[in-house]
Structure formats: C-alpha cells, structure tokens
Amino acid sequence: MLLKKYHTDLIKKNKICFIKNFVSLQREYDFNLISLLIEENNLMILPKSNIGNLKDIFQICKVSNCLKEFKTFFDFLSKLFKYERDPRDEVDLFFSLASQTGNCHIDEEDVFILGLKGRVIYRMYDIENKDYEINKGDLIFIPKNIKHKVIGINPRIVASIGFYGKRFK
Questions:
Q1: Structural domain that includes position 138
Q2: What pLDDT is recorded for position 1?
Q3: In the chain, fewer beta carbons within 10 Å around the N or the C end?
Q4: Residue 69: is its pLDDT beyond 80?
C-alpha cells in the first residue's frame, strides 16, 4: 500500500485525496467473484439506483470478513488514521454491469474508495469541482459531507471503506 506523507496529511486535514496505484491487486475482481462471495457468505444485494433490471448500481454490505484483503485495508486505514470504532464502520462493495451514473449525494461517513475493476469517475462538488478517474488499485478519500457523484464508464466494482467515528488526534 502506497501512502506518502503528503497523502496522509491531506486525509488528516479532511481534504479529498486521490492516490494513483495505492495498491497492486493480485486477485482478479470480476462478477464471478461477486457471485461466489454472495453465495458463500449469504450476502444481500441492494439496488441503489432503482432503474430496474441489470442497469442498476448494486451494493453488497458488510464484506470486510469475506476476503482477507478487505479486512487488511479496513484495519490499515482504521489504525493509520486513528478512527474511533463505530458499529457502522464497514467495507461495502458497489458494482454495476453497465455504464451507469449515480445520483449526487453526501455521505455521513468518511469514505475510502478502492477501485477493483473498471473505470469510474468521482465528481466532487466542493471548492474545486473536480473529477477523479479511479481504476483498479487506485484510492480516493472523500471526507464526510462532501457532495459527489459517481459515473461508471464501464462495468465496475469498487470497495467502499467507511468510517463513522471521529478520529483521535
């Protein structure tokens, strides 16, 4: 996992932080793996965009214990940034089978988004109104209360690592 002091300083100051090639992912994250995780762990899939059929954006909640690397990412970020534990803290997967745009929204938690498959644009509506392209292995930190929109360029899978608790100094 590649984090420079510049990146950790931005995150500690609650600033949007994009890290190209944060991690080199050896596993192939694809829809066969998603299907296997759902089956082996009895996971629920939630449609997020309510378009209907397979054009929706889908969420799989609470996957931190499904794959070792999800737990590793969660623990690493939690300890590095000293988050107070909250029962809602977790790793969720978001995926879409087609190019898709989500609604503008504001998260109530700090979110670290890790690209697992495909290309995704995260459009931020803050001071800069900037777009960030996330690919496999890239990470973006989005502090809570930052309005943003997700634009899937092609079928995609991302891990969303969310922390609701405050950070200790």
A1: 5-163
A2: 76
A3: C
A4: yes
